[in-house]
Amino acid sequence: MRVAVFADIHGKFLLPFKLVHLYQQETGNRIDHILQCGDMGAFPDLAVMDRATLRHARRDRDELGFHDDFLRVKPGIARFLDELDVDMTCVRGNHEDHDFLDGLERETDEPRFPIDAYHRVFVCRTGAKQVFRVGKDVLTFIGVGRIADPKGRTHQRFIQDYERKALQKLHGTREDFDLLISHDKESENVRGYGMPELRELLDRVLFRYHFYGHTGEPHARGLASNGITESVKVRELEFNAQGTLDPGCMIVLEKHGAELDLEVVDQHLTNRITRHNWKIPDSRG
Question: What region holds the Calcineurin-like phosphoesterase domain (predicted)?
């Protein structure tokens, strides 16, 4: 089993699928699922975009990719996604329409729920166990959405009380998980930075890897505060001034039985997709 991991896509919903398609063509290796670390930019109603997203959207229509390309079926995109046959599971970030996502979450008890017209993009419920199976291989993970707020504000972009309770229920579990997927990073005990709930979860539950985005920092790997879990900052999926993607924006995990191997996809591959060529007309129509 292989999964690809991306961080902040900010409306470019089609881009992770395009990168997975390219990776499969270049390597011959099948990707079975995509994981995404929040800040999807899921805004079906442009009237409720937050100020930061609106500001960026005035310069770059890509910020509106959910509204433009995934809210209603476009035949070309549908054909491309059906042929690729890969789903993407996301956690919430701080730049989403949370009213929209809250409504979908309330309609189901499932650990993840679809949000798009193609039923290819899912959002996972914070604290719910997620299980992917491919043949005999099984991958387990916990998703934690939104960000922390040291001022105790209750705006929907910040972690909610019901989500904290869901995470606290995990504290007594004796189960280990392969992955922790979050938008925010764990708290470093620096006032105003990071999510304390993540630090507490990592202290109480064993994960092999923790992936996150949000911070704008370069891709990096190191040990989490528990000294056991490998912490991986996934570089945001944003085009730089040269129109290319930065190193560490695409991670591939391969699971064979109990073995879990990590590959940082090389720029020689990701640089094949640029700001200027990633919207191929016959996959958008």
Answer: 1-216
